[in-house]
Amino acid sequence: MARPGAAPKIDDDELDSLERDLLGRAHGRVLEIGAGWGENFGAFPLDIEWIGLEPDGDRLAELSQRAREWGHTTPPLAAVAGHIPLPDASIDTVVASYVLCTVPDIAAALAEVERVLVPGGRVLFVDHVIAPAGTLVRGLQHVATPFTTRLFHGCHWDRDPEPALSARFEAADVRTYSVPGTPFRVPTLLFDGRPRAGSSLFTG
Ligand SMILES: C[S@@+](CC[C@H](N)C(=O)[O-])C[C@H]1O[C@@H](n2cnc3c(N)ncnc32)[C@H](O)[C@@H]1O
């Protein structure tokens, strides 16, 4: 029996559809952090101006090629989320899928995200997150994380980025679903938000 307040269970196709809906809300000048091999191009509206950011050299090469195939002319940035080489208030939407599990410092990355966003900009994040306290899955995530960080390029299975996201961004649509993982179901967070009104960056 489901626990009260437990995340709704969905399958891979439903997750795919929810991700496409979330990323489809990107508009204007879009910065995609940790863009990987360019898996998200099909989800974005065709009229965006896409700027990718990716620190891994091998992925960057494939990302550059796929970006060109999708008609995006700006070469992706070889950079990390903690130091985004873009001016203040220069981006309409920041997108990241399955990246906050990996960045070394979530708070530093989100500070940079807020810095580059225009006032009224938008953030769209999706990531796997830690299961609720007291669950077997949460215990397994803690046990597995020392291995996943080594085996999967710094990926933490036991992170909860939602408090850091909600502290910095006004949540417009936040949802968590239980999705099939390997080897157990994991909660996945979808976060759509905007910089908080009165953010120190925009109050002069
Ligand atoms: C699990 S992959 C996700 C790739 C892609 N976003 C996707 O959904 O298919 C995580 C990506 O984050 C990148 N990454 C790792 N550390 C990063 C950092 N500090 N800043 C930005 N991206 C980072 C990795 O190189 C990798 O491409």
Automatic annotation (TrEMBL):
<dbReference type="GO" id="GO:0032259">
    <property type="term" value="P:methylation"/>
</dbReference>
<feature type="domain" description="Methyltransferase type 11">
    <location>
        <begin position="31"/>
        <end position="125"/>
    </location>
</feature>
<protein>
    <submittedName>
        <fullName>Class I SAM-dependent methyltransferase</fullName>
    </submittedName>
</protein>
<dbReference type="InterPro" id="IPR013216">
    <property type="entry name" value="Methyltransf_11"/>
</dbReference>
<dbReference type="Pfam" id="PF08241">
    <property type="entry name" value="Methyltransf_11"/>
</dbReference>
<dbReference type="InterPro" id="IPR029063">
    <property type="entry name" value="SAM-dependent_MTases_sf"/>
</dbReference>
<keyword id="KW-0808">Transferase</keyword>
<dbReference type="GO" id="GO:0008757">
    <property type="term" value="F:S-adenosylmethionine-dependent methyltransferase activity"/>
</dbReference>
<dbReference type="InterPro" id="IPR052356">
    <property type="entry name" value="Thiol_S-MT"/>
</dbReference>
<keyword id="KW-0489">Methyltransferase</keyword>
